[in-house]
Structures are given as C-alpha cells and as structure tokens.
Design brief:
heterodimer, A: 323 residues, alpha/beta, four-stranded antiparallel sheet, B: alpha/beta, 12 strands
C-alpha cells in the first residue's frame, strides 16, 4: 500500500545571474502515512522550506522542479498548477511562519474563513457561519473575537486563526513551516499543544518544517534531517537523538542547548557548502569530525539501515564491515 | 575598581513610556496613560560575571538594559556604574563612560554598516572616541580585537564586507567592534537568536571567554536553555519586575516562583524521552498599561490565594540561599 503523501526524488534549481544555477534541493524523498508526524529539520539554506514549497507547487517561476509528489499514490505534481490546485487546502493545508501574511488584513477573521468555505463549495450562509464557530473553538479563539481584524490579534492568536483557516476544508495533511518561531515560549507551548491535539482530533498527518530540534523531538514521531539540499538522516526521533547515524545529526544535537542537559553546547566549525556548483564527495565532509578519505571522493547515498532508519554516511558501511 | 567588586548596581529602576493618545484623545484631554515598562527592577552585576535577564517579549528586559546604558531615561531609581551614580549624569558626563559600556544587538545583518569593511567597522569606535593613538597603533588594536573574537588570521577578514561574511562571523565582527575600546560592561541583547543553531554555541562561548578577562556581561534573552548553559546568574522578568533571580543552576534546578516554574516547564527538551507535561499558562501577559494590583502575576498564577490580590511581593531570599530570591509570598 502506498503512503498518504510521498515525495520522490525532488530536485529544485533556481536560476541565478550569469546563467548559473543553485541546486537547492538535491533529490529529496520522504513518505508520510496517515496520522503520522514528520519533522523536516535543518539550518537556514538547507532546502527544507524549498522542499515543502516544491511539494505544494508554490515555487516561483525562476525555479525548475523535477520529481514526483504522490498523494494516495497519484502524482499531483505532473500536471503543474492544474493538477495540484484541487488538492491544495482540501488535502494539503498550509500554515506558515508569521501568519499575518496568510490572513487578509481588510477582512475579519470569520469572514475570511466563510469565504474559504464558500470558494471551495463546502458550506455557505448559515452553515458556513456555524462551521466557522466550530473551527474557531477548535483552535481556541473565543467566538466573538472572530469578528476582529487580523491586526487586532496577537502573534499567537494569528497563528491560531491561520490554523482555523487551514482546517476549514478538512485536509488530511497539515504542512507547517516554522509555526512557532516568532512566538514567545509560553505562546509557543500553547501552539504546540494545539497542533498536538488538532492532529489527534482531526486525524491529521503533520509535516513540520523547522530549525528547532527540540520542537521536533517533542511533537513528532519521525524526523528527516536536511543538509545542503539533501536528507542526510531520517528515522524515529528517539533513535536520531540517542543513536544518530550521521555525524551532522549528532553534532546538531550537541550544538543545541538543553535546560538540564550535561555539558556545554559546542558549535559545528565551518559553514555549509555553496549549492551553486557541483558537490564532490560528502557535502558535510569539510565540517565532519569523522571524515576519512572516501568522504572526499565519493558522495554517500541515503541508505536504509534498519527498518525505518536511513542515513547518508560512509561510516555506516564501516560499521557493517566490522560486524 | 569599586570597593565591593560590583561593576553595576541597579536599584528600584522605573521606566515609563507615555501611550500615544491620538488626536481625539489629545483634543478631549483624555488623561495620559503610562506604560510601566520597567516597574521597580533591582539587580547587580559583578566584574567577570554573566547575568542573563530572561523573560517573554514585553517584560521590560530590553528597556532595562537600554536604561542601564542611559539610552533610555529612567523615571526613578538608581544606576551605579563602577561606584559612580550615573542615573542623572549629563550626556557630557556620560561620554567618557560610554567607551566602558558597550552593546551588541540581535541582528548582525542590521547592526553592521554594509559599506564598511571589517577593518572600518572595528576601527570606527576608536575614531569616534579618539582613542587608539596612531594609525599603526589602531591597526594593531583592530587586529587584536579580531583575534579575540577568533576571526583568525585577521588579514583574512580585514578587507571583507558584511555581505561576504556568515551570520556567525558578522556577530563576531560586531563583538570585536564593541570590545576594541576595552569596555568593562557589555550588554548583549539576544546575541544569538538570529544565528543558526550550529554556530550559536561558538558565539556564546566567546562571550563566556571575554568574561574571564573581567568583562561583565548582561545578556538579554528569551531562551532559558541558553541562559541555563551559559549564565552565572539568571534574573527572570515578568511585566516590568524581576520575579526571581539567583545562580543559574538554582533558578533552573530549583525554581521558586510559579512563573519561573511554568516557564521552565514549557521549554522543549532535546531528548524525545523527556516529554514532561508542560504547565501551560493560559492567555498572554497583560500589557504594561494595566498592571494587575497585588502580585502582578496573580491572574495567571496556578497557585494564587486571596492575599495575592492585595500584596505586591518583594524579592525575598528563597530556595537554598546563595543569593537566590523570589517575589512570591508562597515561596519558601
């Protein structure tokens, strides 16, 4: 049986001045089962946001895309906007960082959700207004506040409004990019709790894009770690933390401060490679503390290790040899 | 050197901002409202110490820091720098002190002048304060500062422009420019929140090392995990007041104020096995125009009792001592 949502070998290139190209996403594949929660983590420039924009068919015209996006086994990327539009919002809902951009500033929050319902032919008039009340309640916005404008909302309330909007068409997947990044820690906790309960109550699958490892550790079942345009490791979050199989995963956790953790966080020396020229060898090799000769010459492929684990690191071959 | 080694002493600091009344309000002579951004803050900072002022947005942590540097005028209270009362020092009197107190900001993309090379940026404070002697001596000071922030060899960086540097490198340049004058106090306002996780620790470790030379660092942050790992002491602010302060390990390991407890409980942990139940406070902090009577935290406090509506608690020794204090009548 195929997964609910599958991304197969996604590549994204951006045209740069002087005829050069930026290979932002370099063959990303991932699968999301119904009700699952997958975190896509990485630092700025790793291609995580470009990956989800590609998945949703929302990249600007300067981007070239290849690969397949399968929703219930059917390719929705093949026909471009034609084939993807019917699924955006209805199957794949989106909540982005800084929800102000997602909301129309000159319409009350309730009015915009009513409009969304009407446009998609899901409800109108009284039925639509009833549905809006339900949605606002589900995301924890007091009913009377729906009659306010987005600018009258705090950051946390706007993020809730964006979620109510996203849920309007009964999607099966919620794609969310840095949903709590600009929020204070207490409001972040409220929004994470809301995401958790929405996924449970509405049976949503979650694709959470973030730079914040602890958020993924707390909210997701599985995670995929991106570096230099590719997934370098993926698997259940517990294994990624306790038994990382890619040095970048290990070092990224070690760089993340923890409230009660032992020891002082340590930076990863160096910087990610430029993606506007071909990469030789492992993209992480110049920063890796375990690199050896093969890492310079040969780019490791993402290989399944055991069950759900996969990593793109030659060290895993050594382990296999030793065994 | 002050006799008690205290570099900075802040007592009962109060900062008010008037709320704009708008045209209608002005014409109808509606009474002026005040935002009590900082509402009675006291703390001190020793030489070589790193104090983290933590709290959510709007709690007054940045205003406190700016007032300490006299970039914002206090309405009341006292600021003592190196034994000298600077609360109402004139601009002229402040000028020689400015080189001894410096600030770095959150966004190294905005705080650096894009038209200046690294050399120009780091040399600028010397020129402004007419310090550093001859051109050759200044060049030497600039190189030293770059070495101290680990941009080595300096020759590799001197001629570069901000856009040619990574985020972490830019923040290091900003730090170099702030230490070139040899300050004794450095205010770091969210110094790493715009940086990638993999480079944050390096910049924080750098602040940590600068401190070893006797520099006092006042770090403003919303990130408790960072404060827990890098600060000597933590002061937690809520609605214009410090509600708890003490050694970092005591505040994080044995919090005494219910706000601190709640705040710590919601910090996401790295280890997926540490899925503790967060104690989520409902709503958001009220704005500083309408500070609740009694304990300002009581409307959101999970353990508030009747007295909390009347008593405005002061910081009292709590927990295991050693300078650990909390402003809660129920704290031990």
């Amino acid at each position: 049986m195929s997964a609910l949502l599958e991304l197969e070998d996604l590549h994204v290139w951006f045209d740069l001045e002087g005829g050069r190209e930026l290979h932002a996403v370099q063959g990303v594949s991932l699968a999301l089962e119904s009700g699952q929660r997958l975190g896509l983590v990485g630092e700025s420039g790793c291609g995580k946001t470009t990956t989800v924009l590609g998945l949703l068919g929302l990249l600007p015209p300067s981007a070239s895309v290849s690969g397949r996006v399968l929703l219930n086994g059917r390719d929705i990327l093949a026909g471009g906007e034609e084939t993807i539009r019917p699924h955006r919002w209805t199957d794949l809902a989106i909540v982005f960082q800084g929800a102000m951009n997602a909301l129309n500033p000159v319409q009350t929050v309730s009015a915009q959700i009513v409009e969304a319902l009407e446009v998609h032919g899901l409800a109108s008039g009284r039925a639509a207004r009833t549905r809006v009340s339900e949605l606002l309640e589900a995301v924890g916005i007091p009913r009377d506040r729906g009659e306010r404008f987005p600018h009258e909302f705090s950051g946390g309330m706007r993020q809730r409004a964006a979620m109510a909007m996203a849920l309007a068409c009964n999607p099966s997947v919620l794609v969310t990019d840095e949903p709590t990044t600009a929020l204070d820690v207490m409001v972040q906790a409220q929004i994470l709790q809301l995401l958790d309960s929405l996924c449970r109550d509405f049976g949503l699958a979650l694709l959470l894009v973030t730079h914040d490892l602890p958020v993924v550790a707390q909210l997701c079942d599985r995670a995929a770690v991106m570096y230099a345009g590719e997934i370098v490791e993926r698997g259940p979050v517990d294994g990624l933390f306790h038994e990382p199989r890619h040095p970048y995963t290990r070092l990224l956790f070690a760089a993340t401060p923890d409230l009660h953790g032992n020891g002082t966080p340590v930076s990863i020396p160096g910087a990610p490679p430029r993606l506007d020229r071909p990469l030789a060898g492992c993209p992480f090799q110049p920063r890796c503390d375990r690199a050896f000769a093969r890492c310079v010459d040969e780019r490791p492929l993402l290989r399944t290790l055991d069950g759900e684990r996969a990593a793109a690191c030659h060290l895993n071959d050594l382990v296999a040899v030793r065994r | 050197m002050s006799s008690n080694g205290r570099l900075l002493e802040v007592e009962d600091l109060v900062v008010h901002y008037p709320v704009p009344r708008g045209l209608v309000g002005t014409v109808s002579r509606r009474p002026r409202q005040l935002v009590r951004a900082v509402d009675g803050v006291s703390f001190s900072l020793a030489r070589g110490e790193l104090l983290a002022l933590v709290g959510e947005s709007g709690c007054g942590k940045t205003t406190t820091a700016q007032t300490v540097l006299r970039l914002v005028e206090p309405a009341a209270g006292r600021i003592t720098f190196d034994g000298r009362d600077i609360t109402s020092a004139t601009n002229r009197a402040m000028r020689p002190l400015r080189r001894r107190m410096q600030i770095i900001y959150q966004d190294p993309y905005e705080s650096l002048d894009p038209r200046l090379t690294v050399r120009g940026t780091v040399e600028e404070p010397l020129l402004i304060h007419r310090e550093g002697g001859s051109k050759e001596q200044r060049a030497e000071l600039v190189r030293d500062a770059l070495v101290r922030v680990e941009l080595t060899p300096p020759e590799l960086f001197l001629g570069r422009y901000p856009h040619e540097l990574s985020g972490g490198q830019r923040q290091r340049v900003a730090i170099a420019a702030s230490i070139v004058l040899g300050p004794e106090l450095l205010v770091a306002d969210e110094p790493v929140s715009m940086l990638d996780v993999s480079v944050r620790a390096g910049v924080l470790a750098l602040l940590d090392r600068l401190r070893e030379g006797g520099l006092g660092v006042l770090m403003i942050t919303h990130d408790l995990s960072t404060a827990a790992r890098f600060a000597d002491r933590i002061a937690v602010m809520y609605l214009g007041r410090i509600v708890e302060q003490g050694p970092a390990s005591a505040v994080v390991g044995d919090p005494q104020h219910p706000y601190t407890k709640a705040l710590l409980s919601v910090v996401p942990r790295r280890d997926p096995r540490d899925r503790t139940k967060p104690q989520i406070l409902t709503g958001e902090a009220p704005d500083a125009v309408r500070i609740p009577p009694g304990c300002r935290f009581h409307p959101r406090c999970p353990i508030a009792i009747a007295e909390c509506r009347e008593i405005d608690p002061a910081l009292e020794p709590a927990g295991s001592g050693q300078g650990h204090e909390a402003a809660c009548i129920l704290a031990g």
